[in-house]
Design a protein that fits this description.
Length: about 210
């Protein structure tokens, strides 16, 4: 991309509070691009990925209104790693294309990509200047997801087991926000990092746009 813009990849395990934190950065002016929201749009009724998904997996994996049957697809990809690979082969290029397009028209001082599987995906690390991980103890994750989604503990832990461990996420991150103690504890961490990202964005835009 010709446009120089400072970018942050926000990630975290299920139930860590990625959306809450992303919303706080957005309220401070960051351009937040959520890959989950893009994926939902791609797999909604009439979504750009639906023809390829139906061709690959069959009409049984679409709901009557033409969206992807998320519960059915979730069960399939957890049972069959090959199905996950086939699903990602359809979705990931389209998600990447949409994120690039969104970043090009972003108006904030920096862009924050919300990518739940940023560390697992491998390619995202090279696309962002900083990785920000939202962290909390595993027991907190389990309790939040059970309360929010109504899932049994075994299913929540199965989802967590398919993601990188807390220690791996911490090791891969440039920045860390601990989200285990409510908004009052969260806000100072967001403010500190927002100020840092603003400084980094300003520094980047002051550099000459050199092509290697």
């Amino acid at each position: 991309m010709d446009k120089q813009i400072f970018s942050v990849g926000l990630t975290g395990g299920i139930g860590c509070g990625k959306t809450t934190v992303a919303d706080l950065f957005a309220a401070r002016g960051a351009s937040v691009i959520d890959t989950d929201q893009i994926a939902h749009a791609l797999t909604a009724p009439g979504g750009a990925a639906m023809p390829a998904l139906v061709e690959e997996f069959g009409a049984d994996y679409a709901t009557p209104d033409g969206a992807m049957d998320r519960a059915k697809m979730r069960a399939l990809v957890f049972a069959d790693p090959g199905a996950r690979t086939r699903l990602e082969a359809i979705l990931h290029p389209k998600i990447r294309e949409a994120t690039v397009a969104a970043a090009l028209i972003a108006t904030g001082p920096y862009v924050m990509f919300v990518v739940p599987l940023l560390i697992e995906s491998g390619t995202w690390r090279e696309r962002v200047a900083r990785v920000l991980a939202i962290d909390c103890p595993e027991e907190v994750q389990v309790a939040r997801v059970m309360a929010r989604n109504g899932l049994p503990e075994t299913q929540v832990r199965a989802i967590m087991a398919a993601q990188v461990t807390r220690a791996q996420r911490q090791a891969a991150a440039d920045d860390l926000i601990l989200n285990d103690d409510g908004l009052d504890a969260l806000l100072p961490q967001v403010e500190r990092l927002h100020a840092f990202y603003l400084d980094e964005a300003a520094r980047l835009t002051s550099l000459p746009n050199e092509r290697l």
